[in-house]
Specification:
By secondary structure, this protein is of the alpha/beta class. The protein has 2 domains: 52 residues, no CATH class; 158 residues, SPOUT methyltransferase, trefoil knot domain (Alpha/beta knot). 32% of the residues lie in helices and 26% in strands. The strands form 2 sheets. A 6-stranded parallel sheet has the order 7-6-5-9-8-10, sandwiched between helices. Strand 6, helix 3 and strand 7 form a beta-alpha-beta unit. It is elongated, with a radius of gyration of 20 Å.
Length: 219
């Protein structure tokens, strides 16, 4: 395996890799293992790779998130991926600015790159599936029922009286709203489809912080 891209720069500058060094490596969608540096040039690194270890298992978690603002999207995707979410759904909501859907950060190349960064952070190799839903009502009517069937379905919502459960053993679908929260009609739609409102506490958290706090509590 020959590396010439940012992975080469990371190995050279962060790990100070030299010929004979052993690095942790993984194949996207496959196993992970070790890579022995056999050649080092100013513009490339060559590895002899052995991939014998399976990646860590995904959490039984489907994550539903109102599309975050573009500046936060990269952090949210990388964080959710590193935490082990199996599926990520980005959804439109009334309080999501229409301009967010036109952001270049929603280009497929960037969406893939951010998830790969999350995998690298967690020493994982299997991408979470990612789905974009530009209309809330069709999502709620046509897609959501299959995502909550036979699962614990929760929506984190400020003001909910029920605290978020801890150490859940079964599969979970977790929904998080946009800045300012879901509207009342959106909440009623989610509740009507079997999604229970839960609270994390009195503080209002950024999306990426809320994801980490909720996943840590649930699993």
């Amino acid at each position: 395996m020959v590396l010439r891209d940012r992975r080469f720069l990371h190995a050279r500058d962060t790990h100070r890799a030299q010929v004979g060094a052993s690095l942790r490596v993984g194949l996207l969608g496959g196993n992970q293992g070790t890579g022995l540096v056999t050649r080092m040039e100013p513009d490339l690194l060559e590895l002899e790779v052995e991939l014998l270890q399976a990646p860590p298992p995904k959490l039984p978690l489907i994550l539903l998130m109102a599309l975050p603002r573009p500046k936060a999207l990269n952090r949210v995707l990388a964080s959710a991926t590193s935490l082990g979410a199996a599926q990520i759904h980005l959804i439109n909501a009334w309080k999501v600015e229409k301009s967010y859907w036109k952001s270049p950060r929603l280009e497929p190349a960037n969406l893939l790159h951010q998830r790969v960064l999350g995998l690298e952070q967690a020493k994982d190799t299997v991408l979470p599936t990612l789905h974009l839903h530009r209309l809330f009502r069709p999502f709620a009517e046509e897609v959501l029922p299959s995502l909550v069937a036979d699962r614990l379905a929760l929506v984190a919502h400020p003001g909910a009286w029920e605290p978020c459960p801890r150490q859940v053993t079964g599969p979970v679908t977790l929904a998080l709203g946009p800045e300012g929260g879901w509207t009342d009609p959106e909440m009623q739609t989610l509740i009507a489809r079997g999604v229970r409102p839960v609270a994390l506490g009195p503080r209002i958290l950024r999306t990426e912080t809320a994801v980490a706090a909720l996943v840590g509590r649930l699993f």
